[in-house]
Amino acid sequence: MASKVIHAFYDDDDILMLAVKKVKAAKHHIDEVYCPFPVHGLDKAMGLAPTRLAITAFLYGCVGLTVAVLMMNYIMIEDWPQDIGGKPSFSYLENMPAFVPIMFELTVFFAAHLMVITFYLRSRLWPFKEAENPDVRTTDDHFLMEIEIHDNEQELRDLLMDTGAVEINISEKNSH
Amino acid sequence: MYTFSNRLKIASIVLMIVGALGIIGGFVMAPGTIAEAKEMVASHDSGHGDAHGAEAEHSTQENDHAVADTHGEEHDSSHDQHLLDQLKNRPWAALYVAAFFFMMISLGVLAFYAIQRAAQAGWSPLLFRVMEGITSYLVPGGIIVFVILLLSVLHMNHLFIWMDETVVAHDALLQGKSGYLNPTFFLIRAAIFLAGWIGYREYSRKLSLAQDESDDNSNFKLNFRISAGFLVFYLISESIMSWDWIMSVEPHWFSTLFGWYIFASMFVSGITVIAMVTIYLKSKGLLQDVNDSHIHDLAKFMFGISIFWTYLWFSQFMLIWYSNIPEEVTYYITRIADYRLPFFGMVAMNFLFPVLLLMNSDYKRVNWFVILTGIVILAGHYMDIFNAIMPSTVGKNWYIGIPEIGSVLFFAGLFIFWVFRALATAPLQPKRNPFIEESRHFHY
């Protein structure tokens, strides 16, 4: 189903932030804001739900730590115990300080990589995917606010002009 | 403009008086003769009900100090003399740990301040007066540490055994180090370092105040230049200071990252105190322009530098533990054998607590949460210095008792008195700092 949306362009992140707050105060729903770089505090201003990415990162870190412990226990204690530096204790706990760097690295490795993969999946990003941003300028120096129109085109146009938009377009959008 | 409230002033003076009584009590209670020392240890051990275990360990464990004394003497008498020395050291060591700890806080803040100046940071100028207030303690704090070092050189105590000629005469390692580690050069270095730190602090403060009254930015630019120069001096002097004032209590042992390790400790303690003083002043309705983002940034530093400290602590520990070279590993063997609780407790306080409490972004903006974590961090870093000094000076005869608590209370009182008195001497918000607008609108 196609719907009409209004695109308001801004050329400064501070003006954009103020505009988002004004539009929210006027009780309009902002569909999306496209930015060339992350704008701190924009998610809160738009009223987006807090990201759950941090929780997944913590869980992935726990997985990494577990993998490291099991892996080093199998390699260094069970499968092929070695006497390194006069420490042939063959006990995981007594050799634990030597494994701390590996435990740390694998925790970071799992958390970082799996978090990035999760982020890509959640944002529906994959190779050769076609860009969703409606205007190429949002990858350069412009910010774009997208609001769906429900028979209130003129009202929105006035409001957005008032917030300091440098350009306003109306376009058709195919919702997926 | 902040005025030093009477309540806080009286509280700080009470702390100083109670602390001074504790310090004096510690010196009075220290044994004067070998017989008294033996009696103290005996009553202490029976009280704990583990006299046998303690005695058995006692005879097997000897550190360098005692070994050096044994030459030409009967073993038992030298052992008793050693015990007496350790018990006599205890009030001195307690005094030294607390004096160093509070000096270290203001020195850490001075380094943080110089970095903000040299980096021309835009977020922090609102906090400059708070930092300058804390660094004012460097003058009394540094002088007190210097006086304690001077008294050590004058053989008033046995904190630094390499200052004892009879020990050096029997010790080839110490003889080899005597070109560097001798009392005269030691005091000269200490004087140069303190003069450099205090000199920079006073000059930078003068320029900072002059900038408010001037009509150009020349004071600000000069402050930028001297801060960059000071950081070079600080990096070298802080490292050597940590070898001289802390590492040399165990003169056979050395670690090449010790300077960084002590730096991490003073840096995180200093930042913690900046956050705590700022939150205190905000609670009094001052520093209106300091917002939650400033506190958030300080808490991020507390979190990050706590992890940095742990990284250095573990790096130092793991390499020495792994290589297991006798002259290196004694440092950790004595600490794990005799100081198990403070040694591992300190890692929990300095690493686990800040990591778990400050991990969440929102918690870094909750002021009472930052204060709570700050108290744990400060106590943990006091324990860090305690663990560095005590095992080499009082051995297994440590205890957190009247001398230790008294010393901490005394220097805490002096610190509060001096810092808040200095805070009251100038407006809390710089007027003409070129970055003050950026700092006021700081939003993470």
Number of domains of chain B: 1
**Whole-number radius of gyration of chain A?**
25 Å
- Name the shape of chain A in a single word: elongated
Largest sheet descriptor of chain B: none
Distance between the termini of chain A: 8 Å
Low-confidence stretches of chain A: none
Radius of gyration of chain B: 23 Å
Roughly what percent helix of chain B? Answer: over 70%
Order of helices and strands of chain A: EHEHHHEHE
Proportion in β-strands of chain A: 15-25%
**What portion of the residues of chain B fall into strands of 2 or more residues?**
under 5%
DSSP, total strands of chain B? 0
The total strand number of chain A stands at 4
Mean pLDDT of chain B: 89
What percent of the residues of chain A sit in helical stretches (DSSP H or I)? 40-55%
Structural class of chain A: alpha+beta
Organism (chain B): Maribacter stanieri
Keywords (chain B): Membrane, Transmembrane, Transmembrane helix
Protein name (chain B): Quinol:cytochrome c oxidoreductase quinone-binding subunit 2
Organism (chain A): Maribacter stanieri
Detailed description of the structure:
The complex is a heterodimer of chains A (176) and B (444). By secondary structure, chain A is an alpha+beta fold. Chain A has one domain. Chain A is built from five helices and four strands, in the order E-H-E-H-H-H-E-H-E. Chain A has a four-stranded antiparallel sheet with strand order 2-3-1-4, covered by helices on one side. In chain A, helix 3 runs antiparallel to helix 4. The longest helix of chain A has 27 residues, at 53-79. Chain B is mainly α and 444 residues long. Chain B has one domain (6-38, 82-440). Helices cover 76% and strands 0% of the residues of chain B. In chain B, helix 1 (6-29) runs antiparallel to helix 17 (402-423), helix 11 (218-245) crosses helix 12 (258-283) and helix 12 runs antiparallel to helix 16 (367-393). The longest helix of chain B is centred in the first third of the chain and has 44 residues, at 75-118. Classes of the chains: A alpha+beta (176), B mainly alpha (444). Chain A binds chain B through residues 40-41, 85-87, 97-98, 100-101, and chain B through 314, 317-318, 321-324, 443-444. Chain A: Keywords: Membrane, Transmembrane, Transmembrane helix. Chain A: InterPro entries: ActD (IPR021776). Chain A: This is Quinol:cytochrome c oxidoreductase membrane protein. Chain A: The chain crosses the membrane at residues 53-76, 96-121. Chain B: This is Quinol:cytochrome c oxidoreductase quinone-binding subunit 2.
